[in-house]
C-alpha cells in the first residue's frame, strides 16, 4: 500500500489519503464478484457519483441512477461507467487512476484463479487432485450419511498400464489414462465426482443407488480395460474404511479377471 500511497500523493497531492484508501479497498479481493462489488461500492460511496456500473467479463454491479454526465473508464477486462451531475477534474483524475489499478488487479485475479484450478485438478486427466478430491469426498460422504440416500464409491485401476508404460513409453500410458478419465467424466452426472488417487488409480463417487449404470456408460465409451471395487456408503464406516474396502475388492477383481473387456493389446489399437 505504501507505493500506491506515494503514487497518489505525487500525482494528486490534494486528494485525502483516507479517500484513496477507501477507493482502492478492492485490492484485498481475489474473488471476482467480491472485487466487482467492492469496486462499485467504493466509487459510489466515496465520490459525488449519481450512479456507477462496474463490469468484468463475468459480472456486473450497478448502483444509483443514470443521471448526469456519463464518464467511461474502460480497459480490456474492467469497465467503469460513472454518472456525475457535479464533478471536478481531480475526482475524474482519481477515478482514471483507480480504473488503471482495477484492471491490473483483475489480471492478478485471473492468475490466482488459474493457480487455484491447477491445485484443484489433475492436469492430465481433468479429475480432482488427490488432496482436494479427498477433502471433497469426505464432505460428500458425510452428506450421504446425513441424508440417508444411496451412494457408492468405486475404486478403479487401469489394467496393464505399467506394462504399456514399459513397452511403449509413458506418453502412451498417459494418453490411455487421459482417454479413460474423459470417458468417466462424460458418463458422470453433475453430482458425481472423479478423483485421481495416484498413478493408474482413480476414485469415483457415484451419487446414485445404481453405480452399475455409470460403469456401463464408461464401458460403452471406452475400450480401455479396467478393474474396480464397489462399496456402498454406510453410516458406520469412515471414509478410510470405505476406500480400504473398495481397494481390496478392486484387487480381488483384478486377480480374478484382469481384463474386464479387452486385453491391453487390443486397447492400444483403439487409442
UniProtKB/TrEMBL annotation:
Span of domain GGDEF: 149-266
GO biological process: cell adhesion involved in single-species biofilm formation; negative regulation of bacterial-type flagellum-dependent cell motility
Listed InterPro entries: Diguanylate_Cyclase, GGDEF_dom, Nucleotide_cyclase, Rev_trsase/Diguanyl_cyclase
Recorded GO CC terms: plasma membrane
SUPFAM superfamilies in the record: Nucleotide cyclase
A GO term for molecular function: diguanylate cyclase activity
PANTHER family: DIGUANYLATE CYCLASE DGCN, REGULATORY COMPONENTS OF SENSORY TRANSDUCTION SYSTEM
NCBIfam families: GGDEF
Name of this protein: GGDEF domain-containing protein
Naturally occurring in which organism (per UniProt): Fervidobacterium pennivorans
